[in-house]
Design goal:
Shape: globular
Strand content: 35-45%
Largest sheet: 8 strands, antiparallel
Strand order of the largest sheet: 16-20-12-9-14-7-6-28
Oligomer: single chain
Radius of gyration: 22 Å
Structural class: mainly beta
Mean pLDDT: 94
Length: about 400
């Protein structure tokens, strides 16, 4: 996030000596983006952050994403991916099931109850939406407390781990970019401040508290996703370091993880139906993230509040339904934990009857996270395993197998 923070102890001048009480030097690490030409932070470690004692392959789940061909819309029931009590033995990193993917972004889901290993995504930033549950995200920058409705933004290569708490699963919808993720550019000044017309501001963002100093020695494993020739260009490695990476005594800068809760998003409404860009919150390279929140809807006397039918010819649209009652999808079987995929090339819109039923509505009590990609998405293992098999025919009521969708 492009505004300055400082946590812990840092020297008065950057790139100068910073010593502990015994006179020893702390080790300065610059974590920066775009080759020293974008946001960065300086972290001060008690031990050398480059030290490794081993490096081995982390075998990521097999299963190559498959093209959406023949082209059709999908409905994925993500809660089916973690039935029963399976979540109790699952962690937020190794348990992720990739649902959709392309060269720019991977969308994954996990329900977990186990602490994750230390993890670092060296491919791009992550935007992880907390569908339900609560926990703590410990990072090299400090600690983030997270709960239902939180977006957790984790910059590329941030070492962190997920620690669920409570008796309910921590359900996470992970948007893994091959780029950086920022607030929508039209909401930012040329220096990075959120502008007056933005639907949220810096006061709504929660940065890490800390620093987080883990005591004790011994070898430590860090699971790393990085660039390679695997599925969607992703491979894995486990680094083993002689000291714990959470040894930072202080840091300052404009690059760090933060949390934004969807309830703090102030919806933009109008007399007639507002297009999806009015709901945008974040963006990455070749994709945007929007959220649909409880809101007053169109108030023109002849308005039709649900979306009009549309051909978003440059995008694939992915909608994650995570609360409330989504008016446009009544009658399609979509509910809590559902994901719909409406690919470019398919004219999509509300289910039969929803268009007419919405007339006269004054308020929608719905909650959804949308990702629009500008390159086609492929269906990955988690998508194939949770496909309801009939959504594509829900507008007509007839399917290819028996002539009628039941």
């Amino acid at each position: 996030m492009a505004y300055y923070r400082t946590v812990g102890t840092v020297p008065p001048k950057r790139h100068t000596q910073h010593r502990n009480e015994a006179g020893g030097l702390y080790y300065e690490e610059l974590m920066g983006e775009e080759g020293f030409f974008s946001d960065s932070s300086l972290l001060y470690h008690r031990a050398i952050p480059s030290a490794l004692v081993d490096s081995r392959i982390w075998a990521l789940p097999e299963g190559k994403p498959e093209p959406n061909h023949p082209l059709k819309p999908f409905h994925f029931k993500l809660h089916d991916l973690f039935p029963g009590e399976e979540w109790r033995q699952t962690d937020a990193v190794r348990g992720r099931r990739v649902v959709l993917a392309n060269a720019d972004v991977r969308i994954a889901y996990v329900a977990c109850g186990q602490d994750s290993p230390l993890y670092r995504n060296a491919i791009g930033d992550e935007c992880v939406y907390v569908e339900s549950g609560e926990g703590i995200v410990e990072t090299v920058f400090g600690t983030l407390e997270v709960g239902q409705g939180d977006y957790v933004i984790l910059p590329r290569a941030t070492t962190h781990r997920w620690l669920p708490s409570g008796e309910q699963p921590l359900r996470l919808y992970a948007i893994e970019a091959n780029s950086h993720i920022t607030p929508a550019r039209r909401y930012l000044s040329k220096y990075g401040q959120l502008l007056e017309h933005a639907p949220f501001c810096e006061r709504d963002l929660r940065g890490p508290s800390g620093p987080l100093l883990v005591e004790g020695g011994g070898d430590v494993e860090i699971y790393v996703k990085h660039r390679g020739n695997g599925s969607a260009g992703v491979v894995g490695t486990v680094f083993v370091t002689p000291t714990h990476p959470f040894d930072v005594v202080g840091w300052d800068g404009c690059l760090y993880p933060y949390v934004f809760n969807i309830s703090d998003y102030e919806p933009i409404t109008g007399r007639i139906h507002q297009p999806p860009p009015a709901h945008q919150v974040f963006e990455g390279n070749n994709f945007v993230i929007c959220n649909f929140v409880p809101r007053k809807v169109d108030y023109h006397p002849l308005s039709i509040p649900v979306p009009y039918y549309h051909s978003n010819v440059d995008s694939d649209e992915v909608m994650f339904y995570c609360g409330g009652n989504y008016e446009a999808r009544k009658g399609s079987g979509i509910g809590q934990g559902s994901v719909s995929l409406h690919p470019g090339g398919h004219t999509h819109g509300p289910q039969p009857g929803a268009y007419e039923r919405s007339i006269g509505a004054e308020f929608f009590d719905e909650l959804a996270v949308m990702v629009d990609t500008f390159r086609p998405l492929e269906v990955a293992e988690g998508g194939r395993a949770s496909d309801d098999g009939k959504y594509a025919w829900s507008w007509s009521g007839r399917g290819p197998q028996d002539g009628v969708t039941k």
